[in-house]
Write the structure tokens for this entry.
Amino acid sequence: MERSILREYAEAFIIAVIFLRFTQIFILQTFYIPSGSMEKTLLVGDHLFVNRFIYGPAPTGLEKGTLPSRDVQRGDIVVFRSPENPNIDVVKRCVGIPGDTVDVRAKQLYINGKAVQDSSYAIHGDPTTWPELSFSDQGRRRDNFGPETVPPGHYFCMGDNRDYSYDSRFWGMLPRHLIKGRALFIYWSNGGPTDDGEWRGLGAQLEQLRRTATGFFTNTRWERTFRLIR
């Protein structure tokens, strides 16, 4: 009898682990913001849920019209594997979809020849505007890019903190297969010290957990909890 109960608990635990793993791989994934490239839409220390289901294969047959699956759209905030280091996840805003012509002139973004009105989310923290003919390649590409056409199966992504974002202006178009999902909502925002994702040993990890736990109530940005990401 006792063995039967233990077996039932073990089976329930295994099923729960499999379900959680399935959910993380195919439906929802957690992600946290380690840098300021998406400010002020996303702040350092924001912890997100990422919808991995939305960009699934296009539904057919009876599934068509019932499952909330679609392709990436302009304005989506997407989480993806870095084209330069696939072991790192990155979050940016998609501003160009396949077939779009992307052009940046003196920090103003143009899509298909039309100026994008993005002042509600895009910010420019550096008062300097680099000219198109500049000795600084980084500055020139930051403030003057293109025009370039987004090829099939690719996207053009930029950080909302335009002057301090390393994005498609520098590493190129984002291949579709690297996209993991769409940022859905903030479930917790930590205003205290935040882990940058680098492993510095077990002791450092335990100390980070201690600081997070002791400062949970005082460092939490409660006004950002469960905020939808747009």
